[in-house]
Each structure stands twice: as C-alpha cells, then as structure tokens.
C-alpha cells in the first residue's frame, strides 16, 4: 500500500531549452512558455488536491522560479523552499552552451544520445578556456556549497550526478518524507532521472530510455521503505505529455541551426 506521495518536477522551459543549447550549470531564466508551464503545473496540482509541506530545489534560477510559480498558482506560497547545489542539473562539461542538433551533425546522433542519456558516460570536462567557465565558477552561489569550489564537478555522467545527490537525498529529503511530509522536488531533467533511477531501481541500460518533459509533475507513490508501489505517473494530458517527451528526444537529431 502507498504510504507516501512524492512529486518530482523538471522546471518549466528555460531560454536555452528553446534554443536547443545544453544549459546545465549556466543560470538561465524561464522562457515565457516556461512560466506558463510552471503556472499550469501549479493549477493542475491544486485541482488534484495536492498540499505540499516542503519543496526542494537546486540553486539554479529555473528550478527555483518554477517552484515559486507552482506554489503561487496553488496558493501555497508560504511553504518552505530548501535549495542545494546537489539537485543541480547534470554538469555537461565542455558541451555547455553548444547546440544539440549541431553536435549531432558533427559527432553523430548516437554520440549525442550517449552524452545525454547513458548512465556512465561523462562528457569532456569544462576548462578555463570555455566561454562559460568564469560565469559558472565565479558565481557567488558556489561559495555557499558544502564542498570547496575547487571540488565542484567539471563534468558529470548521470552516475556521478547520483553520487553527489544521494548523500543529500538520504540526509535531508528522506527524513522529511518519512515524517509524513508531502514533498515536491523542483529540479532538472537529469537530476530527476537520477532520482527515478535510484527510487525505482531502473537498470543502467533502461535509464537511457527515460526522458522528462519540462513542467510536467511526476508522481511517485512509495511504501514505508520508499519503494514505489506502482509505476510513476506523469500528470496531465497524456497525448500532450508523449508529444513533449518526443520533442525533448528529438532535440538530439542532426539539424543545421537556423
Ligand atoms: O542541461 C540542459 O540543457 C537540460 C537537459 O538537457 P538534456 O539532458 O535533455 O540534453 O537540463 P534542464 O533543462 O532540465 O535543466
């Protein structure tokens, strides 16, 4: 029987999602469509009677802004929002800022799929010559982390995302769930995939076929050991959700940029 309900959410569309660029640790705001997605998500959750007790976000604006918009649409602005870099998007290393479709033209769609969806392939690391290196590592938010700035990642596989996320999950999020709180995690495509892999026990191979669309809440019903009692449910219009998943998958198809 289900004891706990947990909602995972990939933020609404960000400016670079629209431009099909790897965004990762670059701090982009939501696009106008992304704002609407987050508000629609909040309205849906309100209609379905959700009452959150605590929200966890990354320290990237798009996940925080999404959490605010969801809570506002639900009339639950007072709910505490707790932020950690450990929920940040996967660090895409040297790929940050690059266009996925152009990368697929240059390196092949298979390679881009490996970079995006495989469990243990780490993309090439970012270095100081990268155009976004200073913007990321000189950002004051990264002086507030529980590891020194020099030890923050320079690129990550999904496996490495899970390794940095799990200690936080176990020490900070799990106790709240076990206290009976209804938790919303407003994070990113790959930090949510890492959590799904962990909670659902998805195999290293099968996780490559899991893609999350922006702004769609994912409901997990868990037993007392935090094991799912039924398959995850993506809430909302199922035809629209399938189309949105395909759109994200197709971002990795080879196409010259216009
Ligand atoms: O870093 C990014 O650009 C996307 C994920 O990209 P893909 O793994 O889908 O290529 O992350 P998010 O929009 O969830 O923050």
From TrEMBL:
It catalyses: (2R)-2-phosphoglycerate = (2R)-3-phosphoglycerate; (2R)-3-phospho-glyceroyl phosphate = (2R)-2,3-bisphosphoglycerate + H(+). It holds the Pfam family His_Phos_1. The record marks 188 as: Transition state stabilizer. It is an enzyme of class 5 (isomerase). The keyword Isomerase applies. The keyword Acetylation does not apply. InterPro entries: His_Pase_superF_clade-1, His_PPase_superfam, PG/BPGM_mutase_AS, Phosphogly_mut1. SMART domains: PGAM. The active site is at 11 (tele-phosphohistidine intermediate), 89 (proton donor/acceptor). Its EC number is 5.4.2.11, 5.4.2.4. One of its GO terms (molecular function) is bisphosphoglycerate mutase activity. Keywords: Glycolysis, Isomerase. PROSITE patterns: PG_MUTASE. GO terms for biological process: glycolytic process. It comes from the Eukaryota. Substrate binds at residues 10-17, 62, 89-92, 116-117, 189-190. Belongs to the phosphoglycerate mutase family. BPG-dependent PGAM subfamily. Plays a major role in regulating hemoglobin oxygen affinity by controlling the levels of its allosteric effector 2,3-bisphosphoglycerate (2,3-BPG). Also exhibits mutase (EC 5.4.2.11) activity. This is Phosphoglycerate mutase. It comes from Austrofundulus limnaeus (Annual killifish). The lineage of its organism: Eukaryota, Metazoa, Chordata, Craniata, Vertebrata.
């Amino acid at each position: 029987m289900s004891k706990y309900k947990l909602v995972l959410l990939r933020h609404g569309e960000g400016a670079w999602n629209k431009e099909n660029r790897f965004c990762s640790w670059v701090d982009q705001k939501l696009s106008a469509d992304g704002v609407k997605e987050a508000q629609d998500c909040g309205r849906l959750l309100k209609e379905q009677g959700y009452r959150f007790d605590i929200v966890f976000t990354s320290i990237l604006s798009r996940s925080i802004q999404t959490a605010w918009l969801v809570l506002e649409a639900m009339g639950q602005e007072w709910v505490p929002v707790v932020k950690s870099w450990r929920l940040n998007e996967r660090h895409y290393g040297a790929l940050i800022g690059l266009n996925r479709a152009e990368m697929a033209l240059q390196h092949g769609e298979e390679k881009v799929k490996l970079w995006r969806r495989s469990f243990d392939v780490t993309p090439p690391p970012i270095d100081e010559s990268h155009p976004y290196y200073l913007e990321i590592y000189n950002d004051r938010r990264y002086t507030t982390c529980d590891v020194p700035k020099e030890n923050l990642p320079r690129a990550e596989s999904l496996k490495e995302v899970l390794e940095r996320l799990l200690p936080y999950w176990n020490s900070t999020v799990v106790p709240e769930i076990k206290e009976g709180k209804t938790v919303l995690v407003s994070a990113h495509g790959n930090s949510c995939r890492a959590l799904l892999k962990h909670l659902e026990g998805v195999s290293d191979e099968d996780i490559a076929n899991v893609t999350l669309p922006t702004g769609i809440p994912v409901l997990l019903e868990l037993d007392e050991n935090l094991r799912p009692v039924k398959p995850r449910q993506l809430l909302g219009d199922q035809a629209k959700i399938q189309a949105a998943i395909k759109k994200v998958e197709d971002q990795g198809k080879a196409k010259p940029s216009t």
